[in-house]
Amino acid sequence: MSILSKENIRSFGASVLALGVFVLLWGVIAAIANSEAIPSPAAVFREGVVMFSGKIGGNTMWAHAYYSMRRVIIAFLLAAATGLPLGIMMGWNKTFDKVVSPIFELLRPIPPIAWIPIAILWLGIGEGPKIFICYVGAFVIFVLNSYTGMRYTDTQLIDAARTYGASRREQLFHVAIPASLPSVFAGMQNALSMAWMCVLAAELVGAREGVGFIIIQGMNLDNPPMIVVGMITIGIIGILLAVSLRWLERILCPWRRELQ
Question: Which residues pair with 56 in a beta bridge?
Fold first, then answer.
């Protein structure tokens, strides 16, 4: 399908229109409130230009965005490397599930922020606890989605593979795992969103760089436009990463089609 197809142009136009309406409503609310606590879009834009053209805390805004993105991506990859195999094995092997599930269900309800004190005791105040907090949030989602994908694999596919003489290992790697990929990719996007939500809390732990640090600086300096610029930066980076995951999903799951 052409990138400049009518469908893509309409979709892009609708997105631009929705964004324009949002900014307009934001401006109207800011004008009615007439309060420094609710900055106007123009004030946020001016602050953004200043922030991206100068330095804050010894780093450019680009560098702060890089530090946050690095923490999130490292935590995301670690969570994928540990959470995906665990969820797959829990969904595939009932005995393994019975052994691991009680421990996982005990730890699952604990919010990532509750791990901050013990993360500092374990890992100090460097990069370790920041990455760990993002990791905890992403890890749980990876386990849940990969587990769900495996448990809801069509049993007829497994039976057909068994009928054709596929071994248990072949059933896992050639049938069950490919069938669970859509659920896994949905979990990836949710895990990435969770990691971004956790990065602000993570960067409260003695951070001197990162977008979360920028937001806290805005609060300490009573500078709402700086806070909003930091929030928008997190949102834009999150969108770019989510789009990248959707592109990867289309490559690895060509059989999956979205509703039109």
Answer: 59
6 Cβ neighbours under 8 A, 6+ residues apart: none
Q: Domain of 215?
A: 43-252
Contacts (Cβ under 8 Å, ≥6 apart) of 145: 87, 183, 184, 186, 187, 188, 190, 191
**Residue 251 corresponds to which amino acid?**
I
Helix (H, G, I), strand (E, B) or coil at 55: strand
80, part of any domain: yes
The CATH number assigned to the domain holding 159 equals: 1.10.3720.10
What phi, psi does 59 have (nearest 5°)? -130, 150
* Amino acid 252: pLDDT: 72
Tokens representing 96?
A: 């393994």
Q: Which residues lie across from 55 on neighbouring strands?
A: 60
User: Which residue from 236, 249, 245, 248 is spatially nearest to 68, judged by alpha carbons?
Assistant: 236
Separation between Cα atoms, residue 84 and residue 60, nearest integer Å: 35
Q: Which residue has the higher pLDDT, 252 or 84?
A: 84
Rounded to the nearest 10 degrees, the angle between the axes of helix 177-202 and helix 127-151 is: 150
User: Which pTM was predicted?
Assistant: 0.82
Separation of alpha carbons 134 and 168, rounded Å? 35
Structural domain tally of the chain? Answer: 1
In DSSP terms, which residues pair with 59 in a beta bridge?
56
Give me 32's structure tokens: 């009615």
Contact between 233 and 65 under an 8 Å Cβ cutoff? The reply is yes
Question: Is the distance from CB of 189 to CB of 245 less than 8 angstroms?
Answer: yes
Q: Give the pLDDT confidence of 66-100 residue by residue, as tens digits.
A: 999 899 999 999 999 999 999 999 988 889 989 99
C-alpha to C-alpha distance for 230 and 217, rounded to whole angstroms: 10
